[in-house]
Amino acid sequence: MAVLRFLTWEPLVRFRQPQAYVAHFSALFDAAVADRITADRLAVQLSGGMDSTSIAASAHATLKTRGAPPDAMRAVTAILEYWLRLICAAIPAVRAGFAVFRRKT
């Protein structure tokens, strides 16, 4: 007879309001992104997903806070079809406020 043991997860922090979890995560996420920015200019590859867009937005805010010029961050993507690239990557990049360039082939 096998004995099964289930591990339970206990959160490291507990808040009274659900919004406090969002604020805590946002602070940790922004600090993690900021810790990895070691230059005053950078490029970020946007895949069109929420993860790369979130990192790009956080990095852009960090650069802005540090006094970097508006064009300090460039967004690039490697999706082959132009319209798909525009929909998936360029629109979030423009909304976040950084420059998007189309390479002519």
Low-confidence stretches at least 5 residues in length (pLDDT < 50)? none
Strand order in the sheet with the most strands? 1-2-3
- Percentage beta strand: 5-15%
Total number of helices: 3
The portion of residues assigned to helices is: 40-55%
Shape by Cα distribution: extended
Oligomer, anyone?
Answer: single chain
Structural class: mainly alpha
Radius of gyration equals: 19 Å
Give the N-to-C terminal Cα separation.
66 Å
Find the count of extended strands (DSSP E, 2+ residues). 3
Average pLDDT rating: 81
What series of H and E elements makes up the topology?
A: HEHEHE
Major sheet description: 3 strands, parallel
Characteristic key phrases:
single chain, 105 residues, mainly alpha
Q: Topology of this structure?
A:
Blueprint: H1 18-35, E1 42-45, H2 50-65, E2 73-76, H3 82-96, E3 99-100
Parallel strand pairs: 1-2, 2-3
Helix pairs in contact: 1-2, 2-3
Describe, in plain words, how this protein is organized in 3D.
- The chain has 105 residues and is mainly alpha-helical.
- It has a domain at 40-105.
- It contains three helices and three strands.
- Strands 1-2-3 form a three-stranded parallel β-sheet, with helices on one face.
- Strand 2 (73-76), helix 3 (82-96) and strand 3 form a beta-alpha-beta unit.
- Helix 1 (18-35) packs across helix 2 (50-65) and helix 2 (50-65) runs parallel beside helix 3.
- The radius of gyration is 19 Å and the shape is extended.
- The mean pLDDT is 81.
